[in-house]
Design goal:
The protein has 155 residues and is of the alpha/beta class. It has one domain: Rossmann fold. Helices cover 43% and strands 21% of the residues. The protein has six helices and five strands. Strands 3-2-1-4-5 form a five-stranded parallel sheet, with helices on both faces. It is globular, with a radius of gyration of 17 Å.
Length: 155
């Protein structure tokens, strides 16, 4: 069994990594930490002109560190850094690696009137296009911190 985490940064992906690690450890699954760096050539002329290898290097450092920390917890983990369009790139690597389950972090959907709208375009794309089962992990807005506007006891 093989799981993958769509990794964005150590801070933003911490909860997603934690959840994926718990499942991987319990099921003896391999866990891949994937970071897709946007291709400057596809983003625009200005991005291409000022592009350096620094984002890919930083991404590799972060992914390697996350995999190392997971290994210390007894998780069979490795990291991958890819360059390209982020959401399609996640699906491409997941297919190539024959992943069984993809863990993706989401922003706080509890405070938004519509599920997964414009502030989460990557997750929205994955929900619509990913052929691999997804596990969406909230980063914030847990049940312990409900939205007061949803309180029905205002009698």
């Amino acid at each position: 069994m093989k799981f993958m985490v769509a990794f964005s940064s150590p801070k933003r992906s911490a909860r997603t990594l934690e959840m994926a690690a718990q499942h991987a450890k319990a099921l003896g699954a391999e866990l891949i930490v994937l970071r897709v760096i946007p291709d400057p050539g596809k983003v625009g002329v200005v991005a291409q002109l000022i592009a350096t290898d620094r984002p890919a290097e930083k991404g590799r450092e972060q992914v390697d560190e996350a995999a190392r920390q997971l290994a210390e917890q007894g998780v069979n983990a490795r990291g991958i850094v890819a360059i390209g369009e982020v959401a399609p790139g996640i699906i491409k690597v997941a297919r190539e690696e024959q992943v069984d389950l993809l863990f993706v972090g989401t922003t706080n959907i509890a405070r938004r009137p519509f599920f997964l709208m414009e502030k989460d375009p990557i997750v929205h794309y994955l929900v619509d296009h990913c052929p691999i089962p997804l596990c969406l992990v909230r980063h914030d807005g847990s049940a312990a911190d409900p939205d007061p506007s949803l309180n029905q006891n205002d009698s």
